[in-house]
Amino acid sequence: MPVHFVRYILLAAGIAASLTGAERPLVIDYAQSRVEIVVKATVDSFVGRLNVFEPAVSLAEDGAVKSARLAFHFRDLATGKEGRDKAMHQWQDTERHPDGVFVLASLEPAVAPAAGLVAIGRLTFHGVTRDLRFPASVVRDGETYALNGNATIDTREFGLPTIRLLGVLKVDPLVHVKFYLQGRAVR
Question: What's the pTM value of the predicted model, to 2 decimals?
Answer without folding.
Answer: 0.83
